[in-house]
Amino acid sequence: MPWQLEAWRQLNARRAALPHALLIQGRPGLGKTHLARAFAQSVLCERPREAYAACGACAACGWFEQGNHPDYRQLQPEALDEGARDESASGEGSAASRQIRIDQVRELQPFLRIGTHRGGLRIALIRPAEAMNVATANALLKSLEEPPEGTLLLLVSSDPQRLLPTVRSRCQAVTVAPPDAASAAAWLRTQGIADPEGAASFAANAPLAALEQAGFAEARRTLTDLLAEPDLDPVRGAEKLLGQPVNEVVIWFQKWIYDLLRMRWGALPRYHPGASTRLARLAGRLDPIDLTRVARKVAEARGLAQHPLNPKLLLEDLLIQYRDLAGGRDV
Ligand SMILES: [Zn+2]
């Protein structure tokens, strides 16, 4: 993808003296796993083309694409497996783990010890690396400290600060940077997104995040209309939002509050440039200290929204706090 070219160049620059562990880092929605997989495939490819691109036709590429290359493993939380139940979306069923389990790392050990099947490298991709808790990360640490010959560990992380320092320090980091606003919008336009500029801003120029959010454009508008209403009714408001994934709604809420705060301090909105008039009207009437307090409440709700006991109550509570912000606002 166009914004990954610099990171791709940096990865390729390391080929001559490939380290044992690479950390591909950057904000969510930039396609880091896609890039890591492309790199892994190109390293395993047995007839690479120019500029190291995988050929897509050799036996190794065939296995890789079908997910059964003998020298490749991918570790990720069960919740990310295809067909896994995602409790945050459905609110029912047994929850698949959002953590990489220690067993998954232990099961990697025999793979790392035995010789490779195709005489090249063996590669393990771990994503997102921050989904390893301390015990799991420590189990991996041994492989990072004394990696068996011919091993490449590819860690992918949107939140490298959450990795154990001992893990981070043993990886060479390559950062995927987001494109600028115009390039992000241009790419989104090629994907057929309506209002590509607005979509890019809302996702802070992370193109894949914007693409993922495209289906929510209508629901997001419902929320922002609600939040701009002078006589907001929290109970009815929460009902209107109930069909949407709560964790998403809380993030949209958070972005709205963030933009209100920005406007209050005289900056331009970051996520809702198209709503600056409405935001300015609201922000002018709000007390910045109260606004900061609600911002903190919304941030706390983000943690709860992954497993909401009662989604409607959670939303109602946020809307009540938000409505009370305005105090004397014709309520
Ligand atoms: Zn190939």
User: Total helix count?
Assistant: 16
Small-molecule binders: zinc ion
The biggest sheet, with number of strands, parallel, antiparallel or mixed sense and barrel status, is: 5 strands, parallel
Q: Order of strands across the biggest sheet? A: 2-3-4-1-5
List keywords for this structure.
331 residues; alpha/beta; Rossmann fold; Zinc Finger, Delta Prime, domain 3; 2 domains; 50% helix; 8% strand; elongated; binds zinc ion
Short description:
This protein is α/β, with parallel strands linked by helices and 331 residues long. 50% of the residues lie in helices and 8% in strands.
Task: Characterise the protein shown here.
This protein is of the alpha/beta class. It folds into 2 domains: 174 residues, P-loop containing nucleotide triphosphate hydrolases (Rossmann fold, 3-Layer(aba) Sandwich), CATH 3.40.50.300; 145 residues, Zinc Finger, Delta Prime, domain 3. Helices cover 50% and strands 8% of the residues. The protein is built from 16 helices and 5 strands. It has a 5-stranded parallel beta sheet with strand order 2-3-4-1-5, with helices on both faces. Helix 5 runs parallel beside helix 6, helix 8 crosses helix 9 and helix 13 crosses helix 14. The longest helix is centred in the C-terminal third of the chain and has 19 residues. About 2% of the residues have low confidence. The structure holds zinc ion. The site of zinc ion has 9 residues, from helix 3.
